Amino acid sequence: MLLEEQDFYDLTWAYLERARDDGVVHAEIFFDPQTHTDRGVPFAAVVDGIHRAQSDGETKLGVTSRLILCFLRHLSEDAAQATLDQALPYRDRIAAVGLDSSEVGYPPSNFARVFARAHDEGFLTVAHAGEEGPAGYVTEALDLLHVSRIDHGNRALDDPALVARLVRDRVPLTVCPLSNLKLAVVRDMAAHPLKTMMDAGLMVTVNSDDPAYFGGYVNANYRAVAEALGLGRDDLARLARNSFAAAFLSNTEKQALMARLDAYLANS
After folding, report:
1. At what angle do helices 218-229 and 233-246 cross, to 10 degrees?
2. Catalytic site includes residue 121
3. Which helix (H) or strand (E) segment is 4 a member of?
4. Parent domain of 144
5. pLDDT, tens digit, 9 for 90 and up, residues 218-245
6. pLDDT one-digit tens code per residue, 165-215
7. pTM above the 0.90 mark?
8. Residue of 28, 131, 132, 140 marked catalytic
9. What is the CATH number for 177?
């Protein structure tokens, strides 16, 4: 059970080691503090343990990372406001706030006020939308939460006007194929919409989602869609480039990662 700061360090360190082994050079990690603070675990224990592992991951593993605090959407906005209060002293360690957990029945509009406040406090924002929920949730996340990225976003394909908007504005979509399969969002990987999204010009990326639970870290997700959808080398390189472009990094940092990718492709 996760109780002490060291527990959160160990959890994060184990993830970063596994990510490094998968060839990941930069990770943007979601965490749900309410899951732990509601059990009486101090917010500081959660953030301090994760942050210490992130620092060690960068120096010892060569994996940089950013932390994204997510509000649990099945809880109230007042609970999210209280969590934001707890996060403010740690804003230098938290790159963005997001919205996750069970999507259907919990629209982004329920959290408009807390996201507005997070923006005022200087946080970037993201939100899970359009995985199990409708395309309208993606529109709400854009219009009411003013997010920089959409997590998942598969159902955006149901709304051609929304697709055109996402393409025009280059809004990144963090797609999680094995999670989609586990949650029965797709019946099998061959039916996954990732290639359709790419062909439509959407800025999609491939990610893991609770990898220990959903059964696949980043490489497993890439392999699954490559094999099922017939993705080639150029497709996979495009997905990797999209992930760097979508990252919460400076332009200089993004360009350095793009250069590493180009060098790898030139020599492989």
Report:
1. 140
2. no
3. none
4. 5-266
5. 999 999 999 999 999 999 999 999 999 9
6. 999 999 999 999 999 999 999 999 999 999 999 999 999 999 999 888 887
7. yes
8. 131
9. 3.20.20.140
